[in-house]
Amino acid sequence: MTGKPSAGLARLLPLALLVPLVTACGGAAGAEDSDTVTVTVGYQSKTINTVTAGTLLRSLGYFEEELAARGKKDGKTYKVKWQDYATGAPITAQMTTGKIDIGSMGDFPLLINAARGKQLRQPTRLVSVTGYNLRGGLNTVVTRPDSDLRSLADLRGKKVSTSIGSAADGTLIRALEKAGIDPEQGVRKLNQQPSVGASALTAGSIDALSQFVAWPGQLAFEGKAKALYDGADLKLPTFHGVTVRKEFAEERAGVLDDFLAAQRRATDYLRERPVAAAESVAKETGLPAEAVYLYNGAHGIATFDPALRPELIAALKKDVPILKAADLVGDVDVDAFVDRAPLKRAAQPPSYPKAGAAKSELWLKGRDTTRAFDTPKALLKAVEAAKSAKSSQARAAYVPDALTGTLWFADRAVWVADGSDLRAFVTASHAKTYVGQHAGARVVDYADAVELAS
Fold first, then answer.
1. InterPro entries, alphabetically (predicted)?
2. Cβ–Cβ contacts within 10 Å for residue 158, how many?
C-alpha cells in the first residue's frame, strides 16, 4: 500500500468515541427488573443501507412483535430502546460500555467495533448483513456541480472531507492510492461528520466529499453535487452489518434470535414492496424518497440480504490493513468476530439471489410500483411520453452506469450517444473512458439525450 499514515489519525478515533459517552442518555443496555427486559438498539437512521436493522425495522414494529410473542411464553415484558446516530463510532462507544446491545454499521466501523470490543474486554460479534454492493458502489466521491474537477486525479492538493474510519474513508484511501496519490499527503483531508461535510461542500469551503449512502445520492438529487468517483471502480465489496455484544448474545440468545427474525421480515418487506419501503424511510428520516429508492429500490445500488456471504467476509479481511496503516486498529481476528450461529437459528432466513444486472427504472407520481426498462434509451422515451400525460408525470428516473452498473439519476448522469445507442455514466471519467474506446461516440447533455431517444 502506498502512502504514509497520518500520525494524528490514532488520536481522532478516541475523541470520536469518547464524546458520546458524555452526551448519551444513561441506563444500561439489557437492563431489567424481575419482570421487564429492556433491549437497546443503536442504529443510523440516515445510513439507509442499514434500514432493515434500523429505520425500516423500527417503523414496522417487527422486533417489538417478536418480543411480545416471547413475553407471552415466559411472562416477561420486553421493551426496545432505539438510539439514533450519524455514524458507527458512537454506537461502538456505547456498546463497549455496555449501554447498547445491538448495533448496525459499515464494514470499516465494524472492524473498529471488533477491535475496541476486544481491547476494552467487551467483545462483540458480527451476526448478519443488512445491505451490500459487491463492487463497492455504495460509497461515492462527489464535488460541486460547477466544479472543474473531472477525475480523482484532479484531487491532488485539494480539500476533501470524509469521516475517518468510515467505509467512505476506506474507499477514498484506496481510490487515491489507485490514482497514484498519497491519501494523507497528496490531499488535504478533513475529518468531518457527513452532514458537516455536505454543508462544507455546498458552501464551497471544500473541493470534494467522500461519503457513504445516502449522502452522495441525496446531494446529487438536490442539485448540490455531481459524482466525481464511483466506488464501484474498486471492484471490492462493501456492506453494512449487525453487531452484538457477545455477553448479551450469550445471556439473551432468544432475544437476538427475535431481532434477526425481525430483520428477515423487514428484508422481505423491502424486497417485496420497495417503493413503500422507500416512502416509509423517507418519512422517518426526512430524506428525499427518490434518493432512498436510488439505493434501496428494486434495482438499487444496495442488495439487502442478512446472509454472511463469503465474499463479504473476505472483503472485510482486506479492510484490516487499511485501518492498521491508519493506526485505527491493531490485528483483528475476523473469523473470530464473525458468528454465523445466531442467523442459522433465527427462523432460517431465505437465501436471496445475488443482485443481477441493474435495469433502468421510471417512478411515476402517484404510483406504488416502478417500471423497468432493458435499455436507457427505452427509459428516456418513457420519460418524454410521461411529460404529456398529466396523470402520470415522472417522479424519478434511474439508469445504470454502462461500465459499473451503479444506478444513478438519469438527469444527473453523463450521457453518451454512440450511433443510435445511448449510454449513461455516473461520472465524467467513465464517459471519457467509453468515448475513448468507441469511435464516433460523443458526450451529450440530458436534454439532447431525451431528444435523441425520441
1. SsuA/THI5
2. 17
Tens digit of pLDDT for each residue in 324-361?
A: 999 999 999 999 999 999 999 875 656 677 777 889 99
Please determine whether the domains at 9-134+237-345 and 139-234 fall in the same fold group of CATH. Answer: yes
Give the cell for residue 206. Answer: 471544500
In this predicted model, what pLDDT tens digit does every residue of 290-314 receive, in sequence order? Answer: 999 999 999 999 999 999 999 999 9
d(CA 253, CA 379): 48
Q: What fold, for 139-234?
A: D-Maltodextrin-Binding Protein; domain 2 (3.40.190)
**Alpha-carbon gap, residue 246 to 243, rounded angstroms:** 9
pLDDT band, very low/low/confident/very high, at 33 (cuts 50, 70, 90): low
Interhelix angle 310-325/107-119, rounded to 10 degrees, is 70
CA–CA gap between residue 102 and residue 241 (Å, rounded): 11
Could you tell me which residues are beta bridge partners of residue 338? 126
Write down the pLDDT at residue 19.
38
pTM flag (> 0.85): yes
Q: Which residue has the cell 427518490?
A: 290
389 pLDDT above the threshold of 80: no
Cell numbers describing residue 229: 468517483
- Strands lying side by side in the sheet with 226-230: 188-191, 159-162, 208-212, 139-143, 226-230
Where are the domains positioned within the chain?
9-134+237-345, 139-234, 373-453
Q: What is the dihedral of CA 97, 48, 304, 260, to 10 degrees?
A: 30
Name the grid cell of 187.
Answer: 490531499
- Match domain 9-134+237-345 to its CATH number in 3.40.50.150, 3.40.190.10, 3.40.50.970, 3.40.50.300: 3.40.190.10
Q: Is the pLDDT of residue 408 over 50?
A: yes
SS3 22: helix
- The pLDDT assigned to 348 comes to 63
Q: Are 303 and 132 in contact (CB under 8 A)?
A: yes
Summary mean pLDDT of the chain: 91
